[in-house]
Amino acid sequence: MILGLASPTYAGAMPAEGGLAWLLDRCGEYGLRALEASLPTEGGEDAAEVGRRARDKGIIWIGYWSDDWVTPAEGVAGLGARAARAFDRAVAGGVETVVVFGNGAAHNRFTHEPPLAEQLRIIPDNLRVVAEAAAERGLQLGLLPHLDYRGHELVVAMQVVGHPALQMAFDTTNPFPVCEEPVDAARAVLPHAVAVALKDVQIYPHRSNDVTIWGAPLGAGSVDFVAILPLLAELLPAPEATTACVKLRLPPDGGDYAEWMEQSLRFLRQQMEWY
């Protein structure tokens, strides 16, 4: 696998300008060969320049892009137009894979307008135009369950779309907010995944039936990495060519980015022969 860095690790710490270039420097600092980060917004960083820097450093740039899969603004036509503009910037930056995810704050398996069954029926119809926009530009998409639906639910949506440009992406902690066991989610999603994010959190249950979820260095939280990491080699369609990006989430009271990254990389070295 190709080990990398996911940009949310430095949420709140990146400079206001030149954030993608800054993240590429962090990849170089830790000897990482991939970066998962959002595609530049219109009028933001120059995608071609970021892509040139990434190539010069030998770093693969995997893009992020998000929209509403259930009730997209301006309907399917608007969704397709936004996807086309975003994917044009991906192509300009030399991006070949884009991780796409929905608006979980607006629609998820716990919201009822529309009901869950209707959401899952609608999603493939809207994703189809996104997949077509990607295919026209030679891009591969990874559909990420992102605090909205369970892994097997979006695998079914992907299969209903039935387009080779649309596959899956996996994040090791995203199953928790939808009451899904990460190992079960991994078994459902990894056979179709083109990108993986490695993240850990510590879950603290409360007597009030509530929970607190705080970030943790890899291997120090609630994710069963001992079970999940072997599944990467076992289940991914192309494990040698798939990126696995470290995505850290520091707790509200802060933490040391460098210390957490070094601890996480030490853990991966101990657990994985490929690193």
Write a structural description:
The structure is a single chain. The protein is of the alpha/beta class and 275 residues long. It has a single domain (2-271), classed as Alpha-Beta Barrel (TIM Barrel), CATH 3.20.20. It contains eight helices and ten strands. It has helices spanning 19-30, 47-57, 75-92, 116-136, 151-161, 182-189, 225-235, 257-271, and strands at 2-6, 34-38, 60-66, 97-101, 140-143, 166-171, 193-198, 200-205, 211-216, 243-246. An eight-stranded parallel beta barrel has the order 1-2-3-4-5-6-7-10, surrounded by six helices. A two-stranded antiparallel ribbon has the order 8-9. Helix 1 runs parallel beside helix 2. The longest helix is centred in the middle third of the chain and has 21 residues, at 116-136. The mean pLDDT is 94.
What does this entry show, briefly?
With 275 residues, this protein is of the alpha/beta class. Helices cover 39% and strands 20% of the residues.
Q: Could you name the CATH topology?
A: TIM Barrel
The low-confidence parts are none
Q: What's the SSE pattern?
A: EHEHEHEHEHEHEEEHEH
Which CATH top level class fits?
Alpha Beta
**Helix segment count?**
8
- The 3D shape can be described as globular
Structural class: alpha/beta
| Lateral arrangement of strands in the main beta sheet | 1-2-3-4-5-6-7-10
Q: Please state the average pLDDT score.
A: 94
- Quantity of strands, as a count: 10
| First-last Cα distance | 8 Å
Helix content: 25-40%
Under CATH, the homologous superfamily reads: Divalent-metal-dependent TIM barrel enzymes
> Which oligomeric form is depicted?
single chain
CATH architecture label:
Alpha-Beta Barrel
Radius of gyration: 18 Å
Strand percent estimate:
15-25%
